[in-house]
Amino acid sequence: DYSPVSVEERCFGCVYMLFNMGVTAYIIGTASSLSTKGDDERATYRRLLKDLNQYAKATSLPPELFESMKQYVGMQMSPQHLASTFEENLPSFLSARARNQRNRPILSKIALLAGSDMSVSNGKEEPSQSGSVSGGVDARPPSNRFLTALTARMSEAVLINGVRVFEEYDIAQDLWVITSGKAEVLVHDKQGVERCVKTYERLDMLGAFSFF
């Protein structure tokens, strides 16, 4: 058993005790914060599932569509969806600028939009370049005003494998840009078996013809 004898030893013992108390309080507080955050996320997920179940019952949702919605809700709880979720809470003039700054590098790599000057210097847009006109078709690239409006409304979506983005004869309401993974175009042959006739890779667009 060791006990302080001198004044210096007593002071050291007090400081050491206070240090241990501070470290212990920090550890307990951090653990409580992490567990509370996890509970909040799980509570949000459970609330979304409850709303989805009520919606499915009220609308007689087909089981296949219900499962797709359920899996989509689960995927949106991933950290990759954080940026778009945060931007939805901002006023439009802030969210538009944030999305424009974040999404323009993606659009600048897309072949259909590559003819436009997508660069941003010191927060200001550079003038767009003019294209040529050949055979009576206007080949000029999209204007920066159009691209700014397009990027200001972009958001991320994490999709599960096998989800159907478009069905046959659908009219595209959204323009999809693949940033990771791939998408397949499936058709039914004479025997009714689905076969892949085209594959879209990274930075390809889905629904571009119908959208524009």
Automatic annotation (TrEMBL):
<feature type="region of interest" description="Disordered">
    <location>
        <begin position="119"/>
        <end position="139"/>
    </location>
</feature>
<feature type="domain" description="Cyclic nucleotide-binding">
    <location>
        <begin position="147"/>
        <end position="212"/>
    </location>
</feature>
<feature type="compositionally biased region" description="Polar residues">
    <location>
        <begin position="119"/>
        <end position="132"/>
    </location>
</feature>
<dbReference type="GO" id="GO:0005249">
    <property type="term" value="F:voltage-gated potassium channel activity"/>
</dbReference>
<dbReference type="InterPro" id="IPR045319">
    <property type="entry name" value="KAT/AKT"/>
</dbReference>
<protein>
    <recommendedName>
        <fullName>Cyclic nucleotide-binding domain-containing protein</fullName>
    </recommendedName>
</protein>
<dbReference type="InterPro" id="IPR014710">
    <property type="entry name" value="RmlC-like_jellyroll"/>
</dbReference>
<dbReference type="InterPro" id="IPR018490">
    <property type="entry name" value="cNMP-bd_dom_sf"/>
</dbReference>
<dbReference type="InterPro" id="IPR000595">
    <property type="entry name" value="cNMP-bd_dom"/>
</dbReference>
